[in-house]
Amino acid sequence: MASPSATTIPARDAPPGAAAAATRAAAVPAVRLERVEKRFGDVVAVAGVDLDVIDGEFFSMLGPSGSGKTTTLRMIAGFEAPTAGRILLHGQDVTGQPPFERDVNTVFQDYALFPHMTVGENVGYGLMIRKVPKPDRAARVADILRLIRLEGYERRKPSQLSGGQRQRVALARALVNRPRVLLLDEPLGALDLKLREEMQVELKAIQREVGITFIYVTHDQQEALTMSDRIAVFNNGRIEQIGSPADVYERPATPFVAGFVGTSNLLRGEAAVAIVGGPGTFTVRPEKIRLAEPTATVGGDEMSALGHIRDVVYLGPDTRYLVTLDAGGELMVTQQNLDTSSMEALAARGRPVRLIWKRQHNFAIRDRNGGGNG
Question: Quick one: which of 241, 163, 174, 232 has its CA closest to 207?
């Protein structure tokens, strides 16, 4: 991928590893929300959200429809005014500022390209409005098009581009203005699965190259896990958990997070007492569990449960087993088909098994009133 010239968007140099994280964390956040609330009549869309987004990170807001993530993004952009609370961009209170006075740009799902303009004219439109001299404008447009791998497409119209190319043009149009924060509202939603996956890798690479803070809204868990430095999981207008992709996936803080981000098993009631040894709610991911014979030996660092395979779903690379536990409840197990054919997998229905997993993969999670899909 071509690098932008020094006259376009300078990448922010930072020390590697933990030192870089500590340096960014000590700085003023790129975006800070303080008890931000948004009401539409009697409906509370966002309920007192506190949030810091670190300068230069790829931050995703993940949640189902109606969870408050898009409304939060629109308040950061200035398209919606908060009912209560403050919004700060790089330490400056912008709560009452209109969108054009904020140092942010937004990329939407529908691209919003001008069909009568060429690619070059679309990308340079914001620079023209700002009265950037024509030679400088042309140079910046050319640099950005090199960055997004559309060099030589300047004279094409949007109708002559694929969906992925149009999305890259929309991204270039936002980046060419050199915003300090780029907001992306489900920008890959209109693309097919294969193209979405390709664009996820490209977006993350571009974000690293330019060093701009990206705040990305999505309902797609895999998308958020693939691209993000950190993720905020939204539900019913609140943030259930903020953390790295590994933190959110491996150590879900609430039953909602455990169920929404990937697939998870929940142990409650008598099953939790019998297997884990105490009351409460516990979670373990299906891929962390292995199937074994009922008489299999269990290590000192492992937990286990006896049961019968109730159902089998053959998925090609993997097989999903649903196991009814002797202690009550059910657990799902996902195993790679390294040596298993479809016939062997399906023939396992009704078989008695012992499920075994490492203690470190079993986490207690707190119940929260009002949980659900929001």
Answer: 174
Residue ranges covered by each domain of the chain: 17-253, 263-365
- CATH number at 263-365: 2.40.50.100
- pLDDT digit string, tens, across residues 133-158: 999 999 999 999 998 888 989 999 99
- CA-based angle 62:246:259, to the nearest 5? 50
At residue 287, the pLDDT reads 94
- Residue-wise pLDDT tens digits, 268-295: 888 888 888 888 888 999 999 999 999 9
Tell me the per-residue pLDDT of 83-120, one tens digit each, with 9 for 90 and over. Answer: 999 999 999 999 999 999 999 999 988 878 899 999 99
Distances (CA, A) of 374 to 33, 64, 270, 356: 21, 7, 29, 34
Whole-prediction pTM value? 0.83
pLDDT tens readout for residues 227-277: 999 999 999 999 999 999 999 999 899 989 998 998 889 888 888 888 888
User: SS3 string of the chain?
Assistant: CCCCCCCCCCCCCCCCHHHHHHHHHHCCCCEEEEEEEEEECCEEEEEEEEEEECCCCEEEEECCCCCCHHHHHHHHHCCCCCCEEEEEECCEECCCCCHHHCCEEEEECCCCCCCCCCHHHHHHHHHHHCCCCHHHHHHHHHHHHHHCCCCCCCCCCHHHCCHHHHHHHHHHHHHCCCCCEEEEECCCCCCCHHHHHHHHHHHHHHHHHHCCEEEEEECCHHHHHHHCCEEEEEECCEEEEEECHHHHHHCCCCHHHHHHCCCCEEECHHHHHHHCCCCCEEEECHHHCEEECCCCCCCCCEEEEEEEEEEEEECCCEEEEEEEECCCCEEEEEEECCCCCHHHHHCCCCCEEEEEEEHHHCEEECCCCCCCCC
Q: Under CATH, which architecture does the 17-253 domain have?
A: 3-Layer(aba) Sandwich (3.40)
